[in-house]
Each structure stands twice: as C-alpha cells, then as structure tokens.
Amino acid sequence: MPFRFPRLSALLAVAVLAIGTGAARADGVSVGVTPGTLTVAPGDTFDVQVAVTQAGGAFNGFDATVAFDPAALGFVPQAQAAQEGALLRGACGNTFYMATANVDSVNVSDTMLCNGVFVTGPGTLFNLRFVASGPPGVTYLRLRRAVFYDDGLYVLPVQRTDALVAVGVTLGVPPAAPAPGRVRIVAAPNPARGPCGLRIEGAAEGAHRILVFDAAGRRVRGIEVDGVAAAWDGRDDAGRIVPPGVYR
194 versus 147: which is more confidently predicted? Predict the structure, then answer.
C-alpha cells in the first residue's frame, strides 16, 4: 500500500525566469490545484486547473510544478491552446509558455511578453489532464513548487494548496477488510509528516520483515517486526531522512 512521507524542511526552488535583482516584493499570491477534491473511477480521464484563487500581488510570469503518484495517475499531454490558462494569455496575447512532463511531475512556465502588463488574479494559470491508471485508493496532486515574478522580482509570500483524488473509493468510508489469506500493510497517518505506524493485516503473530521501496522500485529501508505492528521513522537504511514522495 503506498504511503507518503513529506519532509518538514523547506524545498528550495531555482528561479529560471528571474532576470532582475532577485529582491522580493511584499505582495502575496494564493494558488492551488482545483477542484480541491475529486472522485473518479479507475480508468477515468479528468481535468484539473492550477489557478490563482483570489486577487493578490501583481505578476507577469511564473514557474510551477505539479507532482503526482505515477502508480496511481498518468499525465495526458495536450496542445498549448488547451493547456495554457486564460489569466496570462487573456491579459497579453503574446506569452512564452512551456510545459515539461516528467515521470512523476509536470513543470510549467509562462511569461507575458507585453511591456508593462501585469495580472493579479483570480484566474486560471494552466490546465492539466490525467487518467486514473492505478487501483482504487486515495492519491494527491501536489503543487510542489510555485514561483511568481514581477519584472524579475519574486512576489512573496506564495500560499499553495493541493488536491486530493479519490479513485474508486468514497471518502469517509473505511476500506473493506482484507480477504482471508491476504496480507497487506497499512500505514497511519497516511500521508505522514513525521514517523508513521505500520500494521500488518492478515498475518500471524511472529517475526516479520517490512521492506520499503521508493517509486522507482529502489529499496529504501528494511524494518524487522516482532508481531504485526511497527513504526517507520522516515529514514533509509543509512539513517538519512528520505525525500518527499510515495513509498511502498
């Protein structure tokens, strides 16, 4: 069963579009993946938007990264006309837009090329399409990075919100008990921002070993269990804190 272990430390982003002094302007931007909660069936294709949710600081460009679990969701590329949002394009018909898809994330950059034109929101920055490719469960679309610029100056602070995607399950209803003879590991809390408990369901009491793997299938940690309950402190076999992501 996949479970998430975000690090508490801040993520540092490199501003690739900043061309000014690098100073920050004290105007904020509120941005998020919308809708904030979606319920879809396995195999369904669905759209989300990354949008500035309320009026805030003025900006004329941004960089953003939306991360997803490739075991649960697949990214569906679209033409720029369908993907680029109306907020920047509507204010300036001449924009530099670029989207790059990775295994577990989509990076988007958009800059207005009209002199002296800025936007404050609210409005849509860009649209993304996904397919629910994994088994039933709950997964997330995380706005891992969002950097806004005003003539090369950072616009701060940036408030980010993620989206939860329920695939083939009803939120608030506990999962069915495992079938006889089936063994599974349940993590709680999930996602976790600190140590998480691990419980082996469907297994007899005794000595067990839990192996933790990252999304690429690399082993991260081996945990010896005496019984059916254990805990993971979010570190690998060498004692290092693991990066944010999905682990199995």
Answer: 147
